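It is worth pausing here to work through a concrete case rather than discussing structure prediction in the abstract. The textbook approach is simple: state the sequence, then state the predicted structure, then interpret. We follow exactly that order.
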Amino acid sequence: MLLYLAEYLTQYVSAFNVFGYITMRAIMGALTALLISLLFGPAMIRRLHGRQIGQTVRDNGPEAHLMKAGTPTMGGALILVAILSSTLLWSDLDNPYVWVVAGVTVAFGAIGFVDDYRKLILRDPAGLSAKAKLFWQSLAALGAAVVLYQLADQPYQTALLVPYLKDVSLQLGGLFIPFAFFVIVGTSNAVNLTDGLDGLAIMPAVLVAGALGVFGYAAGNAIYSNYLGIPFIPGAGEMLVFCASLAGAGLGFLWFNTYPAQVFMGDIGALALGAAIGTVAVIVRQELVLAIMGGLFVIETLSVIIQVASYRLTGRRVFRMAPLHHHYELKGWAEPKVIVRFWIITVILVLVGLSSLKIR
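Step two, the predicted structure:
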């Protein structure tokens, strides 16, 4: 939106040319989203407190979590408002990828909102049923996958790129649609499973999104993509603006979500953030790199799958509790120690993923 204003004003003041650069708009997007989160966060927390929209804690969870009962939840709405407002202000709105990722973010946020609303306001412990949640997630993800498939006008834009190996890729063809669906839905639910401790999910989401923004910027530039040996995706550079907005909104939310948390994001935030990250990874053709950089989300999800499978097959539990962060809590690690160590692991994984830009 502001890009068009800047282009108009350029005829009078040449300095407005600076807003034509994606990098500048990404910086402004991050700062805008950060300021929105910081400015409106306190009011949102007071409003959630006033409406008594607080966290419920399961009886079989770690005892230390009992003190979290009543902490305002559904704070993810603040993240979404910050991301979308900043994206609409600073992105090129003629770019279809912007609308695809924004649409996915809104759709998954709406699903999370209904789930949180039923749990926290209607006091229905079941919330949105698993079948209903998966149905609506599938509908949104399939819609995005079909649109992205139609936007691809070159075979390499629907190929699965193998990181660290030069010119090695798997042409997916029509399988691109189910694959993209799996990435979007899987990432959404993986982030949701990770969101169990104060700030545990939001910081890795910020780090991974920031790194994917770098991939988007490179993929959207013909010179950089050719030099780095990655697919050239016209228009993918705008994902840097979206990812920067996500990072800014996430950091602003972390100000209130850091231990001890004043507010939780709830499903409205976790499902939307995961879906947004998964969609960006599909757009920039870096799904396997996402699995590396988002390794924390993968491990947390696998811990749940392993725990459930083991208990059903053998009657025994592999972990003291799943997801994995609860296992370490029950081993005696203080919550802040679990959080910071998982953040450090994510930093390492993100750096490993970024290295794939040069190691080929």
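Step three, interpretation. Residues 47-55+75-156+171-294 form one domain. The longest strand covers residues 159-161.
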